[in-house]
From TrEMBL:
Pfam families listed in its UniProt record: F-box, FIST_C
Top-level taxonomic group: Eukaryota
Organism of this sequence: Populus trichocarpa
Name the UniProt record assigns to this protein: FIST C-domain domain-containing protein
Domain FIST C-domain, first and last residues per copy: 331-488
Single Gene Ontology BP annotation: positive regulation of proteasomal ubiquitin-dependent protein catabolic process
Length: 528
């Protein structure tokens, strides 16, 4: 029998016979290190790899391995188990004796020197286990109790993201160790954010700001300035008080160590829309919601006088007050007793102070701002009511608020319904458009009060439920904060005790609440 010529019977072999879609499907499931090697195989593979890397991605995982190095390696391995182009990273750690600089340096080596990174201590973490993929809300006190039996404890949650069409940078609020005007420094901090946003997007208001405030720095004046400076379209979320370290993509902004002349009072990740983005890049959108966990109780009061004292631990305001419409000045303990008599169960008390203040940045024209600020009630005597923080003035009005798990559960259910309606709207729009430009859910972020969680609600994963119920399986990362930052979100639940001024006041620093940020992406229309 005559043999066929060799070249005629040599079949297409290996990947040469696989179509482009299948190659992309295989490559996007390879670990980041193998993916980098695959990009060098040939020109067509390199183009496919670039297409994969150009898509939005949020990757997150946590590890509770008591060995800090092992835990850090586990979360990095999980987050980089699929291709991603790291644009920013946030690591939140829990435990005792944590070395933040070790985690920061490890992540910088793994993710690249130009990637903005923030590492912070949290009061709890929310996400999926890097090993088991099980979703958990891990509260710090429960973690410590469990770790005590093992004589060690460490946990880390790592979130890495790439959001095409946006640029991201870490910008710190720096304070010299020597005396300086803090208001001038806050002004500079706000201007640094605005200047970066303007340089990137042409607008001084970024799309999103994620903030971590220092443990000992008062953030109310910072948030007032940011609220004044940003348009209503700018969302701000984060943790009011935390130990943190950061690494900016711009080396001159990196100030660390006790030997430096500056202290970092806060740091933000600024997400600004790129005005030079390519025409084939779609649009990232942020969708926000707030679940409030407090309710008003008792009448409205008017502040008669204030006196601020600075003990060793916390700034305290002593104030005298009277009920609205009455002339008698009431003792602080009497006011507290009256409020407690109305409560069925004793809970934490706060006052929500309605303020109207002139706010100005640098040489700009002043602007009248109306805000609602919470202050924890610390006690009272025959004359004064003692509350945490400062910034309260004579003539301000306030209501009492108390932590309320039923209100929080109802508010969380409303957030879940709103997300469900959002998902239905997207599905309807996609049907009408024939699937063209279909919106994709990239992931979600959660910033919840450390007082919530299982002990507050009586069962677990309540704060995660709006995402778990509506977008199961999406990358989600969250923390329990000591003061949750949320600007640009729906205000408190409607309450008969609240007046119109409180309902319309902007509140940026919340108590017993949870802040949600959902990230979506709409691909650019196909070119014909």
């Amino acid at each position: 029998m005559e043999k066929k010529p060799k070249e005629a019977r040599t079949p297409l072999a290996g990947f040469a016979s696989i179509n482009e879609d299948l190659v992309q499907n295989i490559l996007k499931r390879t670990p980041a290190s193998s993916f980098a090697s695959a990009a060098c195989v040939c020109k067509s593979w390199n183009q496919t790899c670039n297409q994969i890397l150009s898509k939005p991605k949020l990757a997150s995982a946590f590890s509770l391995n008591p060995d800090q190095k092992v835990a850090s390696q586990e979360v990095v391995n999980k987050v980089l188990s699929e291709p991603i182009r790291p644009q920013f990273a946030i690591a939140n750690v829990i435990g005792s004796g944590v070395d933040l600089s070790e985690t920061l340096n490890f992540l910088a080596a793994k993710l690249g020197s130009k990637t903005p990174i923030i590492v912070s201590c949290a009061n709890g973490i929310i996400g999926r286990d890097a090993v088991t993929d099980e979703h958990q809300e891990v509260m710090l006190e429960d973690f410590w109790a469990d770790a005590a039996s093992k004589n060690s404890g460490f946990g880390v949650l790592l979130t890495v993201g790439f959001l095409p069409g946006l640029q991201v940078e870490a910008i710190p609020l720096l304070r010299p160790r020597k005396a300086a005007s803090r208001m001038a420094l806050v002004d500079k901090f706000v201007m640094d954010i605005r200047n970066y946003a303007a340089y990137v997007s042409g607008s001084t208001s970024p799309a999103l700001v994620i903030m971590f405030g220092g443990e000992k720095a008062e953030q109310k004046p910072v948030m007032e300035k940011l609220d004044h400076a940003m348009s209503r379209e700018t969302f701000i979320a984060g943790d009011e008080r935390a130990q943190f370290l950061y690494k900016s993509g711009i080396e001159s902004r990196n100030v660390h160590g006790s030997g430096n002349e500056y202290i970092s009072d806060a740091v933000v990740l600024v997400f600004a829309r790129d005005r030079h983005r390519a025409s084939d890049v779609g649009e990232i959108q942020f969708h926000s919601a707030l679940s409030s966990g407090v309710s008003t109780i008792g009448p409205r009061y008017k502040v008669v006088s204030v006196k601020e004292i600075q003990p060793e631990t916390d700034l305290t305001t002593c104030l005298k007050a009277r009920r609205e419409g009455e002339q008698e000045i009431l003792g602080g303990q009497r006011i507290i007793d009256d409020i407690n008599n109305e409560l069925v169960n004793k809970t934490e008390l706060f006052i929500g102070v309605s303020k109207q203040r002139q706010c100005v940045i640098g040489s700009e024209n002043p602007k009248l701002l109306r805000s609602l600020a919470f202050h924890e009630v610390k006690g009272g005597d025959g004359e004064h009511l003692f509350v945490s923080g400062d910034g309260i003035g004579s003539g301000d009005y306030f209501h009492f608020y108390h932590s309320d798990s039923k209100a929080a559960l109802s508010a969380t259910s409303n957030v879940s319904k709103n997300f469900r309606n959002l998902k239905l709207d997207w599905s309807s729009s996609q049907l009408h458009a024939g699937g063209v430009g279909s919106k994709e859910v990239v992931g979600g972020l959660v910033f919840s009060c450390w007082g919530r969680g299982e002990s507050f609600f009586g069962h677990s994963n309540v704060d995660s439920s709006p995402f778990l119920d509506n977008f199961p399986g999406i990358p989600m990362a969250g923390i329990f904060c000591y003061g949750e930052v949320g600007r640009g979100f729906t205000m408190l639940n409607a309450d008969d005790h609240e007046d119109q001024e409180e309902k319309t006041s902007c509140c940026c620093l919340h108590v017993y609440s949870t802040i949600y940020v959902l990230v979506s992406y709409t691909p650019a229309p196909l070119k014909h």
